[in-house]
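Q: Hand in one record:
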Amino acid sequence: MQSIRYFILSIIFWIAASPVSFAQDSSCAEPLKIRFSADYLPFSHLESDGTLSGIDVEFIEGLFQEIDCPVSFVVMPFKRAIFELANGDIDMMPFASITEERKSFAFFSTPYRNETVGMVFRKEDVDKYRLTSLDDVIERGLVLGHEQSAYRGEFFKAFLENPASKPHVFNVVSASEGIKMLSAGRIDAMVEMPAATLAMAAKMGLPDRFAEHPLLLWSDPVHFMYSKKSVSPELIAKVDKALKAAVQEKAYKTLYGSMGMHVIDPKAALN
């Protein structure tokens, strides 16, 4: 938590030193309603006392505090959240990928971190299944757990569209449900961000039960996704300006590590 506190202090210092004013936007008169996942460690997690914790939660809370825009957090399944954002019932979702379908109802921020998607197996099965493509999943008769409506890259999207994949995919409501099924042997692997799945498994008391498979399915920056019906382009531009400054801070790089956006100093590039 010390790095998080340092991050927030760094943002305060940057804004105090900046000539740019972050006076409250008129579109921030009401709290921005932001959806988080209840079980997406280390990014967001619903604690037993009902509070939300995690890297993304702390980062976003600090970012919006410093542009004087109040927020409220809601927890709901991903599929329902997409529907509510499209209708303007919630305003923003973090860790979102840009797709053509989503562009019809959503605006997107500048990237704020990277997301990597792969497969998590029971530890004893990782070396057993030497997969080189998703076609091998069908050939080996495996069943993959997948959170319904979650985007896992173009390769996995194409796999889902293949009729032959249907018996090999089981849709789960949440990562924790998938982890329980994987531990019980009801599915063979989870398609997810491995860091999140392994962190969630540790939280559930299964720290050594699973391992990441070496087959990488997708790696890409993720964004804040805003409802076109409820969030103004002016507010998005203001958040983007603060976000671009934040990702250059040392505290941000400490917080996100290899998952963070890698910013190259133009002056350093010329040396």
The chain has two domains: 2-114+221-259, 115-218. The chain is about 35% helix and 20% strand. Confidence is low (pLDDT under 50) at residues 1-25, 263-271.
